[in-house]
Every structure is written in C-alpha cells, then in structure tokens.
Structure to design on (654 residues):
C-alpha cells in the first residue's frame, strides 16, 4: 500500500512565504480585491491568497490561481511571488495525486532559490523534494534531501516547516523499519510545537506517532494517538480533511488487525468519504484499497470488487506508465542540471588555477628580471647555471611524469578486465528486466495480481543488482581517474584493506594482459580490525602499486629463468603492530643483490634493464610514506624473494 504523507506545508510555512491578513477572508471578498488590482505585485498577492483559500478545499482551483500568480510574477521578476506560487503549484499537484509533476515543479524551485541566494527558500525546496520522494517510495533519496533541508535550517530562523521536515523524516525511518530513528525525529517535532503551537503540525505529529506505534505492533499506543488527533475539535473534515481522513484510516487498520471488521469498515468509509469529497487521490486509493480488503473478509464480494476497481483506477491515474515515463524525464532533467553545475564548478576551478599559475609565472619572471638586472656582471655565469638547472628540472619533471604514466599503464589492462565483469552483469540483468516488464504488462492486462507482485519483486531485485554492479564499475573507473590526475594533497579517511586489495587485483590482471601465459599464486591476509585512517589515498595508492608491481616483475623474471618447475607467489597482508599499520608485500621472486639493497630508494636507481624502469618508483614511494609519518623497509634474499613492509601511523588524524 502506498503511504500518504501529511503534507500540511502551506499552512505551516504561510507566515514565511505569504503575507496573509489576520482574519480569513471569504472567497467573494478575495475575488473583489483581485478585480481592483492591476498587473502588479498586489495582484500577485491576491492570486496567492485565493490559491491559499482553496488549498484544502479544491486543489484544481488552487492550481489555477497559483499558475496565474507564477506567470505574472515571472513577468514582473517578483522573486517572492515566483517562489510561493511554485510551492502552491507543487502542493496542489500533490493533493491531486500527481506527485511526479509536483516533484518537477520543486526541481524548478530549487535552482531558482539557489540562483537568487535565498537560503531559506532553498532549504524548503530541498525538504519538499524529500517529501515527494518519500511519497514515491524512494526512501533513500527522501532521507538525503530531508537531511540536507534540516542541516540548512539549523542556521536559519526557526519556522514551523522545520518540524514538518522532522515529521516526514521520522515517517521515512518508520517505513524503513528503523523505529529508534523514527521516534527521535517525531519527538523533535515537539521543539517546534513549543515555539509555534501549530494545530496542523500537532495533529500531524499525533497521526504519525500512531502510524509508528502500529508498525512496531503497539496497537494500544497507536489507537491512543489516533484518538487524540480526532478528539481535537479542530480536526474535522472542513478544517483538516487530510488529518481527519488519515486518522480515521489509521483506526480502521487497527480494527482490521483486531478482526473487528464492522468497526473497520465504518472508519474506512469515513476516511474514504472525506478523501473523495476533497479529491485527495492518494487517500482515496488507500481507503478504497482498505475497504476492498475489509469487504472481502466479510464476504461482501460486490462491494469488495467495487472498491478494488476504484483503487486500481486511482492508482493507475497517479502511478501509471505515462506517469512513470514522466518521472524518468524529470529525474533525467535534474541529473543533467546537476552535471551542468558540476561542469561549471570544474571550469571555475580550472580558471582559478590558470589565473594562479599565470600570476606565479608572472611573479617568477619579474623576479628573474630583477635578479638579472642586479647581477649583470655575473650574467654569463648565471645564464649557464639557470640553463643547467632548467634542464635538470625539465628532465626530472619528465621522468616523474614518465613514472606516473608507467604506473597508470600498469593499471589500464587490469582495469579493463575488472570492469568487464560488472558491466556484463549490468547488461544481463537489464535484458532480464526488459523481458520481465513485458511479462508484467501481460499480467496487468490479465489482472493477475499475484503474478504482478511476483514479477515486480523480481524486477526490483534485478534493479538492486544492476545498481550494485554499476557502482562497482564506477568505483573502478574512479580509482583509475584518481590515480591519473594530479593530487591535491588532501588527506581523507581511507580503508587500507580495500586500497591494497584493489591495486593487487588490477596490477595482476595488468600483467596477465601483457603476458597471457603468466600466472601467479596470489594471496591476501587482511586484518579486519583495521579502521580507516587519514591519508592521501591517491599518493598511497601509487606507493602500493609500485611495490606490488615490483613484486610481480620479480616473480615474472624468475618464471622466465626457471620455467614450469617454479610457481610464482605474491602475498599481500595487513596487520596492526605497536600502534602502526603494516602493509606487507612478499614475493618468492629473484630477490635483490646485497650490494644494491641500500640504493633501491635512491632517485634514478633501478635494477631493471635499460628502458624498462625510470628508477623513480621506489624513490617516490619512500618520499610519500615519509610525508605520511611512516617508513618503508625491505628484507630480501637474492634468489629467494623480497618482503617490503610499509608502516603507517594508526591515528585517524595522522
């Protein structure tokens, strides 16, 4: 059953968003006031008040006036009017059951608020998006947006809408079987009520508490809160139809659980009547679905079929194929907008970097000119010295770049192999979903609810697998990009075990790609108790890559010398010893001669043949580990193998 969220927002946020009179005006007086206005902001406010008047009464009429207000506000470039009319449009669409279009309107509202720098409006837009995602049963996205909204509102003036966001986040946690978090946020609503004592928010809190207690099986407490809501004389079909219908329906479900069917039917019919009179489509669907279930238990099949058909038609009007397609388009547009924002931020960063680089170069040039002028007598000697230094820096820079590209090249083949598996899974499950969707259409046409539920569950399971393997492929690509780009030196919490495992597999498959006949016994022994530590993951990745790469090179060389009698073996392990993390890379390869062991960490020294190494891999690794407050040591026996140990501080703040 789809969940109705208590969207009482406009009444909760009207103080901050709409200038209202102290006394409620009648529709006639509002229309008379509208006729006396021209195309100015006074007319916008009059249209907004009319939309507000019809907020619960007639969602269609509310949408009509809100749309007019939006058009005029845009013509006048009236920011306040644009934001409020977008809010009213979204809520009217939501009450009509068109949550997808409501979400689309909010995706227009959010960037507009960001553009004009209205933090309060931006926070509210984020909260509404979260609530509409929850109405679409995308609870993960709902929690993300609601948390963002609450985080922003902590720095803003207190408003009733903050309590509403806590309320909806509590409902999300309740629906996803996290009762502790649910009750925490539902009780947080009380802080807002102490300040504003808003009757709509209080009724919503009681109904949500009733729902939360019902889900954990505490039916007595649930009934108490439903009764508390209905006992408030302000909670009636005229003033609070949404809360009245929701609490009536809540009591009906309790009677159903207690097998008191007559009482259940009575309260469900009350909920349906109010929802139907006020065109609250989501509640119409839920109450008619509940009535169908209750009548079926009573053996009244005609009534059960009537309400089942009504529930089906209402559900189709809100969440049918066309609506689903619309949702995909809305999400695609929002994704493109976010990508454009990210691209613009990247361009800005590049421009700042270029300006900084040009500034530095300019300063260097000016300083050079001053030095040349000051030491004109020593010009020839300085020119020779600068030329030599420039060539040395250029050579060093080229060698460092060559080393980085060599390490990247070692990853490419492994990445190609690693990324193939998750992509195959994604393609296979996507094909299966395509077939299941066809079967789902057939089952829907045959009205076989059991098959529909079974197929839908299979589609959902496949989608989770697609998402899992898609994230796996995305992680591999991000690892490659992170390894290839210039580092910022920014430390971040990193899982050492995952980092070692990732680079071990990629390096091994890289060697396999270069030499199809190459195989090796690869083992890992990772200490699961190791927590994440603060390191520059990109730099430490290069360290692990270079050391593992050298290990595979050593066993590959020994394999060529000894043939099939030799079994290459590389072991990577981690452990915690005396407040430090040890990363140990052990191989049974050629080992390192005693006379050169002391030189392997020196720049440009290499034991590889000319053209196969830069001599900078271990040197850079040594420097990176030192910067992290650690050390790297080697134990080797020529002809038997080597063991490199990287020691890093265990502290998360290192």
């Amino acid at each position: 059953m789809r969940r109705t969220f208590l969207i009482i927002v406009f009444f909760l946020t009207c103080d901050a968003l709409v200038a209202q009179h102290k006394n409620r005006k009648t529709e006639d007086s509002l229309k008379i006031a509208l006729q006396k206005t021209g195309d100015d902001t006074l007319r916008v406010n009059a249209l907004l008040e009319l939309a507000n008047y019809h907020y619960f009464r007639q969602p269609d009429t509310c949408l009509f006036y809100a749309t007019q207000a939006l058009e005029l506000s845009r013509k006048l470039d009236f920011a306040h009017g644009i934001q409020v009319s977008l809010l009213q449009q979204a809520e009217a669409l939501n009450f009509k059951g068109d949550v997808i279009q409501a979400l689309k309107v909010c995706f227009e509202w959010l960037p507009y608020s960001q553009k004009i720098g209205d933090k309060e409006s931006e926070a509210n837009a984020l909260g509404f998006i979260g609530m509409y995602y929850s109405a679409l049963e995308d609870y993960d996205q709902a929690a993300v947006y609601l948390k963002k909204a609450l985080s922003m509102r902590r720095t803003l003036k207190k408003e009733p809408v903050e309590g509403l966001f806590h309320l909806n986040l509590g409902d999300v946690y309740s629906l996803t079987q996290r009762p502790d978090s649910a009750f925490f946020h539902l009780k947080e609503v009380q802080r807002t009520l102490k300040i504003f004592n808003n009757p709509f928010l209080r009724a919503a809190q009681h109904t949500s508490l009733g729902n939360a207690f019902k889900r954990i099986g505490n039916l007595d407490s649930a009934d108490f809160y439903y009764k508390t809501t209905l006992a408030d004389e302000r909670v009636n079909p005229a003033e609070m139809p949404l809360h009245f219908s929701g609490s009536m329906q809540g009591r009906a479900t309790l009677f159903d659980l207690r097998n008191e069917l007559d009482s259940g039917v009575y309260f469900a019919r009350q909920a349906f009547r109010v929802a139907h009179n006020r065109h609250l489509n989501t509640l119409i669907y839920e109450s008619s679905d509940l009535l169908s279930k209750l009548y079926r238990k009573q053996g009244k099949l005609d009534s059960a079929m009537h309400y089942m058909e009504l529930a089906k038609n209402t559900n189709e009007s809100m969440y049918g194929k066309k609506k689903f397609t619309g949702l995909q388009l809305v999400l695609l547009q929002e994704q493109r907008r976010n990508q454009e924002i990210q691209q613009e931020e990247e361009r800005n960063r590049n421009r700042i970097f270029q300006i900084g680089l040009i500034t530095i170069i300019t300063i260097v040039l000016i300083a050079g000119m001053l030095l040349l002028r000051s030491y004109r007598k020593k010009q020839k000697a300085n020119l020779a010295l600068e030329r030599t230094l420039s060539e040395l820096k250029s050579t060093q820079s080229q060698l460092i770049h060559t080393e980085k590209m060599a390490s990247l090249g070692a990853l490419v083949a492994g990445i190609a192999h690693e990324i193939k598996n998750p992509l195959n899974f994604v393609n296979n499950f996507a094909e299966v979903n395509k077939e299941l969707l066809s079967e789902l259409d057939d089952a829907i046409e045959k009205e076989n609810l059991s098959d529909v539920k079974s197929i839908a569950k299979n589609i959902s399971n496949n989608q989770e697998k697609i998402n899992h393997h898609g994230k796996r492929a995305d992680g591999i690509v991000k690892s490659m990009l992170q390894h290839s780009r210039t580092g910022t030196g920014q430390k971040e919490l990193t899982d050492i075990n995952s980092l070692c495992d990732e680079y071990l597999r990629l390096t091994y498959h890289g060697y396999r790609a270069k030499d199809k006949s190459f195989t090796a016994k690869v083992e890992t022994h990772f200490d699961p108790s190791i927590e994440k530590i603060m390191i520059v993951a990109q730099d430490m990745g290069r360290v692990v890559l270079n050391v593992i790469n050298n290990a595979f090179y050593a066993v590959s060389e020994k394999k060529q010398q000894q043939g099939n009698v030799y079994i290459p073996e590389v072991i990577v392990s981690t452990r915690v010893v005396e407040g430090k993390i040890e990363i140990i890379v052990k191989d049974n390869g050629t080992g390192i001669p005693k006379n050169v062991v002391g030189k392997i960490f020196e720049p440009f020294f290499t034991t590889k043949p000319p053209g196969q190494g830069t001599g900078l891999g271990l040197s850079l690794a040594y420097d990176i580990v030192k910067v992290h407050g650690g050390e790297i040591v080697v134990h080797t026996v020529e002809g038997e193998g080597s063991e490199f140990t990287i020691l890093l501080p265990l502290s998360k703040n290192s």
In short: The CA atoms of residues 100 and 328 lie 9 Å apart. The first helix runs from residue 9 to 17.
